Predict the structure.
Amino acid sequence: MPNEEVLVEILECEQNTQIAHLILNSPETLNSLTLNMVNLISDLLDAWEKDPQIKMILISGSGEKAFCAGGDIRALYESMCDENGPIFAEEFFESEYRLDYRLHNYPKPIISILDGIVMGGGAGLMFASSYKITTERTRFAMPEIGVGLFPDVGFTHEIKKLPEGLGLYIMLTATNLNAADTAFCKLTNSSLNSNDFDEFYTDIKQLAWVDNHDENIKLLDSLINQKKYLTNTQSFPKSKIKEELSTIQKLTKGDDLVTVVKNIFSYDTEDEWYAKGKQTIKNGSPTSAHLIWLQCQNSPKLNLKEVFLFELNLAIQITRQGDFKEGVRALIIDKDNTPDWKFNSIENVSQDWVKEHIKLAWENNPLEDL
């Protein structure tokens, strides 16, 4: 089935147990999620939950470039251009968030192999996984500020788990994190050299998996932390986030967004890593920056369900307000890289405008039944 967007492989393991291997199969779009893929995965999860032989779900991406780089952004753009309004965009975000929430609460372990780019919709799959495995090619980021969106797919729930100030910084600057960075931030569990994939798949088939979620995670963790695998991850790049955390925390200290952004821009350094972050803020949507600040303020107050209710409302409002549509046009469709944002600076964004994005988008949030 070479043209299928989602491939399925059932791994036969010891004592008549199985692992369902789900492969995102759209390498030409960096395995970005379409609505069809979301619905297919949801249907598969329904079937696998009822199958007593299947003990775990493994998710990976086709090719060497990406696990999953996002959602179907062109389809979202076309929806926002529709004279009837962004009806498809509303359906997509609702379906995607339902899938993410389902994965967070799935009774069987969800294992993600995060080889390559992990952004947007891929990050949502990552956050929701029970066990996350990085490689030397892992590149995780939340770059939504660049297209006028906000870091969604449950990231509001992750912010409070990160070292203080770090969530705000990586969202504002779209900073890329490698395997060591994500491990330091406790976003991921372990690493595997991509050269060891074949051996890893052979090894997991030689184990007898059980009906207990936590026991299966322990079995997997014990396997992947064997010396033969650990030795081949020693050459992975070190964590820049770990090195720079104290500086990041100083820069992100402030009672308001404008103060934090001034701190970041005034930091005198020749380090290109910081220069890229400054450029991202400069080019990004000022509205998105304020929504990111709002996420950080709300993160400690919201449980997982409330996060997805909050994010869906925000996502729908932003599809109706213009900056997301303009950002996609400029960076993805026309590629002129000159978005005409509603506000020309973070300082000029009014709080009334920010409040427009948290007004109820409908009489009842479609995710109330989660």
